[in-house]
UniProtKB/TrEMBL annotation:
Protein's name in the database: Terpene synthase
Cofactor names: Mg(2+)
GO molecular function terms attached to this record: metal ion binding; terpene synthase activity
Family: Belongs to the terpene synthase family.
InterPro entries, sorted: Isoprenoid_synthase_dom_sf, Terpene_cyclase-like_2
EC top class named in words: lyase
Biological-process GO terms, alphabetical: isoprenoid biosynthetic process
Length: 340
């Protein structure tokens, strides 16, 4: 289906966005790691080690506040693990930014470099920044992560790059996918699945593969992924709409359901609330395997919960979506569309 213009819907000067943190209420506990400042400083030095400290790049990096995101999503991580996670999340944001300007062939080339760097860390030679950075953080992860965590990390990174490639093809064709296809694709373009493998790494877990295949675990992961992805779609909509980027659930709802902009935002907000509700329902109905496995599963699910409450908190502490206006928007919940 070819894209029709989203501008046929009414174009308000602002949209009202949901207060999802309040909806989480007392069901989720926000924690912030005490290692945040130290690790953030070290990761910043790592990121700029092979790049120049231009004023614009430095301001963008500081405004991103990736160290805070990691400190609320992996609050129980030790210094070593938290540093790897901060480097990895910074790397993901970096790739997300540069991939917006890549065509399909460039994305495929970048994917080959990164995945060869990860799979063949000692034998694959590259001078590309995205390759050398990937080798560096993965080598540190590899030192202590369980085989299962490493396998899931590599597998989900493959899925991430495949989905980014598909996103690029859709963007070039001016194609807005149907809602079901978008949900499936978005669960991979979000990068969440690799971030969930990092929970295993951070908490030194060694959960059997068959446990991860259990439907309840899958639903918990999907609910977390959907909340992260769809809340991000709402918060980033202003910026993406201005660029004409339609890889966003709000745009999908406008296009396929014929909703105006505010109704589409409200629709996605309701999907976010349902994802939170489903997570809580599945968390209350976890099966039992054995005392050891149950203990580790509980820690893993706690890690998923940290992602839900953490991403909602961080979204108004970063300048990535709302710039310097984030705190003001958090009070009014109104986002003016003219100021991107």
């Amino acid at each position: 289906m070819q894209s029709r213009s989203l501008k046929q819907n009414s174009n308000p000067s602002y949209i009202n966005i949901p207060d999802l943190s309040s909806y989480c209420g007392e069901r989720f506990n926000l924690q912030i790691s005490r290692h945040r400042k130290t690790i953030s400083s070290e990761s910043k030095q790592w990121f700029f080690h092979t790049d120049k400290y231009s004023k614009d790049k430095l301001e963008a990096y500081n405004g991103l506040n990736a160290g805070l995101l990691v400190s609320v999503c992996y609050p129980e991580a030790g210094c070593t693990q938290m540093r790897v996670c901060t480097d990895f999340l910074t790397y993901l944001f970096y790739f997300d930014n540069i991939s917006d300007e890549m065509d399909n062939s460039s994305i495929l080339e970048a994917s080959d470099i990164v995945m060869n760097s990860l799979h063949h860390i000692n034998s694959f030679r590259t001078s590309s920044r995205i390759g050398t950075m990937a080798k560096d953080f993965y080598k540190r992860m590899e030192a202590t992560a369980s085989p299962g965590a490493l396998h899931r990390f590599l597998e989900t990174m493959e899925q991430f790059f495949q989905s980014v490639d598909q996103q690029s093809r859709d963007r070039d064709a001016g194609h807005i996918v149907d809602p079901e296809s978008y949900i499936s694709l978005r669960r991979d373009t979000s990068g969440c699945k690799s971030c969930f493998a990092m929970i295993e790494y951070c908490r030194n877990l060694n959960i059997p593969d068959d446990v991860f295949e259990h439907p309840v675990i899958r639903r918990l992961e999907d609910a977390t992924n959907d909340l992260v992805s769809w809340s991000n779609d709402i918060f980033s909509f202003r910026r993406e709409y201005a660029k004409g980027d339609t890889h966003n659930m709000v745009s999908v709802a406008m296009h396929h359901y014929g909703l105006n902009m505010q109704d589409a935002v409200d629709h996605v907000a309701e999907l976010c609330r349902k994802a939170i509700d489903d997570f809580c329902l599945q968390r209350d109905n976890l099966p039992s395997w054995s005392p050891k496995v149950d203990r580790e599963v509980s820690l893993y699910v706690d890690g998923l919960a940290s992602w839900i409450v953490g991403i909602l908190y961080w979204s108004f502490e970063t300048e990535r979506y709302f710039g310097k206006d984030a705190k003001t928007i958090k009070q009014s919940w109104n986002v003016h569309l003219g100021s991107v």
